[in-house]
Write a structure and sequence with these properties.
By secondary structure, the protein is mainly beta. It is 13% helix and 60% strand. The chain has an eight-stranded antiparallel beta barrel with strand order 1-3-4-5-6-8-9-12. It is elongated. The N and C termini lie far apart (40 Å).
């Protein structure tokens, strides 16, 4: 788990280096003209869907499938490189007991995520970015057996990186990868289980509209 966090942090630092390093060849060509990947005062609306494997075992003797993922995003560009806004993300994972094997049901997570996004450069029609969100995961469970499970709501920390490919000035194709922390506890048949970690790594594909 620690190694995964180190990889995520390293990739974020690498993206920040595009902005901060004066010797970067992209920025050195013309720092004033090329700095920034979006116009100021733009609204960006995104609709994406994809899949999300969890990053570790959910809990002892319990396993999950690769979950479904849907994400909606509304962002506003404060200047040429900084956007602020909100994400709303839904995620579902089927949960199984391993010994004896049986279907327990599924966990649904709705994440409310205030977000900041950096767009340091663009490459023609391609605009790479990194974003970070802090918010809350609202977790629920739908049982398929007599086992009653109630996962806690948790603090959400999401780190994403991706790119928009502009088809027109107002329409873009989008792909994004993101790590999202969803680590808490669950009440199982009235007993508290502190080992309940549904943190995941998401892969999103969709479209964005620029206004």
């Amino acid at each position: 788990m620690k190694s995964r966090h180190l990889v995520v942090v390293s990739m974020l630092l690498a993206c920040f280096s595009l902005v901060l390093l004066p010797g970067n060849p992209v920025l050195a060509q013309d720092s004033k003209d090329n700095f920034g990947g979006i116009e100021a005062g733009k609204w960006v609306l995104g609709m994406r869907a994809g899949f999300a494997p969890i990053t570790q075992e959910l809990s002892a003797n319990r396993s999950t499938d690769v979950g479904s993922l849907v994400n909606f995003q509304a962002m506003y560009s404060l200047n040429k490189w900084l956007l602020v806004g909100m994400m709303l993300e839904w995620e579902r994972h089927a949960i199984d007991q391993e010994r004896p094997q049986r279907d327990l049901g599924h966990q649904d997570t709705v994440s409310v995520l205030p977000t900041v996004e950096l767009r340091p450069v663009n490459f023609g029609s391609l605009s790479p970015y990194v974003n970070m969100s802090l918010g809350v995961n609202v977790n629920g469970f739908g049982e398929s057996s007599a086992t009653r499970i109630s996962p806690s709501n948790t603090f959400a920390w999401r780190l994403g990186w991706g790119a928009d490919y502009m088809i027109t000035k107002q329409f873009a194709l989008n792909t994004e990868m993101a790590y999202k922390r969803n680590d808490g506890h669950a009440t199982v048949n009235g007993a508290r289980n502190d080992d309940w970690n549904a943190s995941s790594f998401g892969f999103l594909f969709g479209v964005k509209m620029y206004f």
